[in-house]
Automatic annotation (TrEMBL):
MF terms in GO: actin filament binding
Tree of life domain: Eukaryota
Species of provenance: Paramuricea clavata (Red gorgonian)
Taxonomic placement: Eukaryota, Metazoa, Cnidaria, Anthozoa, Octocorallia
Keyword Ribosomal protein: no
Family of this protein: Belongs to the formin homology family.
Name of the protein in its database record: Formin CG32138 isoform X1
UniProt GO BP: cell migration; cortical actin cytoskeleton organization; regulation of cell shape
Coiled coil: 152-179
Length: 216
């Protein structure tokens, strides 16, 4: 967020996307990007598939300067062909080739012009100067963000698994402690058994004594 006294402008530069994994919570367990992924999946699930259909790998290899040079080379080549055609007015093969090639070069040049306009507009939407920024740099921001986004999603899933495993371990330990409290210890059970046996022996002795006195 950038603001001035006169007006407030909301937005971000594409390069700031790289900072999302670096901004972390106080316990260092979660980054801002982890939080963004969680928020999207929870509250905006329709946006979670934003990367589908975005095959940017080839786009990150594009050089605007190289494309421009290629177009200029095609135009120079067709101009040379035109000069030769004008010299050889009776060369019908060259004449036919020039007509076909000229039409194709015109189409390619027009497509390049429209592509450049759309590219500049796209850059402007994200606050970038399309006349200065190469497509390889522009599209790499998005390709890298997609990779970082799904890496953060995997981190979230792994953290959930660890938290669930820890929760289950704590429940098991708690149950074991409660069970230990309710069940008598082996020593207590042993003493109880011995005391019961001693008590039974005393009763048997008493019965024997009583029987002996009766007989006398």
């Amino acid at each position: 967020m950038n603001g001035t006294r006169k007006k407030v402008a909301a937005g971000f530069k594409l390069e700031s996307l790289y900072k999302l994994p670096d901004v972390r919570s106080t316990d260092r367990k979660m980054s801002l990007l982890n939080f963004v992924v969680t928020t999207v999946k929870t509250h905006l699930p329709e946006l979670h598939s934003f990367a589908q259909g975005l095959d940017l790998e080839d786009a990150t290899q594009v050089s605007k300067q190289t494309l421009s040079n290629d177009i200029q080379s095609l135009k120079k080549g067709i101009d040379l062909t035109k000069k030769e055609r004008d010299k050889q007015t009776d060369n019908f093969v060259l004449f036919s080739f020039y007509n076909r090639a000229f039409g194709k070069v015109q189409k390619v040049s027009e497509k390049y012009r429209k592509m450049e306009e759309k590219y500049i507009d796209a850059c402007q939407m994200f606050g970038e100067d399309g006349k200065k920024m190469e497509p390889s740099e522009f599209f790499k921001y998005f390709q890298d963000f997609i990779n970082m986004y799904f890496k953060a999603e995997n981190e979230n899933d792994e953290r959930k698994k660890q938290e669930e495993a820890q929760r289950q371990a704590e429940i098991m330990m708690r149950n074991q402690k409660n069970k230990a409290k309710t069940l008598p210890s082996i020593e207590t059970a042993w003493n109880y058994t011995n005391d019961s046996d001693a008590y039974d022996d005393d009763e048997d002795d008493d019965d024997s004594s009583s029987g002996g006195s009766d007989s006398s």
